[in-house]
Amino acid sequence: ELEHGADDTDAKDVTLEVAVDDPVLGWVAVEPVALESSGVPILGHADGSKPLYAFNPSVDVSIEQSNYVASAPNTITIDLTSNMALEPGSKVTLTGFTGTATEDTDELEIMTSNGAFLP
Questions:
Q1: Helix (H, G, I), strand (E, B) or coil at 62
Q2: pTM higher than 0.70, yes or no?
Q3: How far is CA 64 from the centre of its chain?
Q4: Within the chain, how many helices (H) and strands (E) appear?
Q5: CA 46, CA 66: separation in Å to the nearest integer?
Q6: Does residue 111 sit within a domain?
Q7: What angle do CA 47, 52, 58 make, to 5 degrees?
Q8: Where are the strands (E) in the chain, listed by range?
Q9: pLDDT per residue over 26-45, tens digit each?
Q10: How many domains does the chain have?
């Protein structure tokens, strides 16, 4: 089993050559075979299926507020940008959001960038 290194790597041309030393047939060489790509993107990376392509998954986070006036309503915007496509069923959990005057509740409205409310 091969293992990727710790860094991102571009796809490589991988060719395998095979030779067999058989006691009856003698030396049998097989034409080189290239490891091909399916061409299907993996996790949103166009080169994801190419031989030896690897990337380090990451998520960048920024947070902003809509209002700086005391006691006024304030919309907090959290922007998550990932370098990979999240698969259906993936969950994003935000924790540790403290310091507001809002009562603790599971009922805060959360809206996605396309305007859909999440339960």
A1: strand
A2: no
A3: 24
A4: 0, 6
A5: 36
A6: no
A7: 65
A8: 15-22, 26-34, 59-65, 76-82, 110-111, 117-118
A9: 898 888 898 888 888 888 88
A10: 1
Query: Which residue's entry shows tokens 């571009």?
Result: 10
DSSP for 37-48, please give it.
P----BTTBTTT
CA distance 1 to 12: 17
Residue of 9, 101, 113 whose CA lies nearest to 51: 9
Rounded CA gap, 38 and 28, in Å?
A: 29
Q: Is 71 domain-assigned? A: yes
State how far the alpha carbon of 82 is from the alpha carbons of 4, 85, 88, 102, in Å.
21, 7, 14, 29
* Per-residue pLDDT reduced to its tens digit, 48-93: 888 888 888 889 999 999 999 988 888 888 888 888 888 888 888 8
Q: Which amino acid is at 58?
A: S
Please identify which residue in the block is written with the tokens 């990451």: 58
In a domain, 92, yes or no: no
The pLDDT of residue 100 is above 90: no
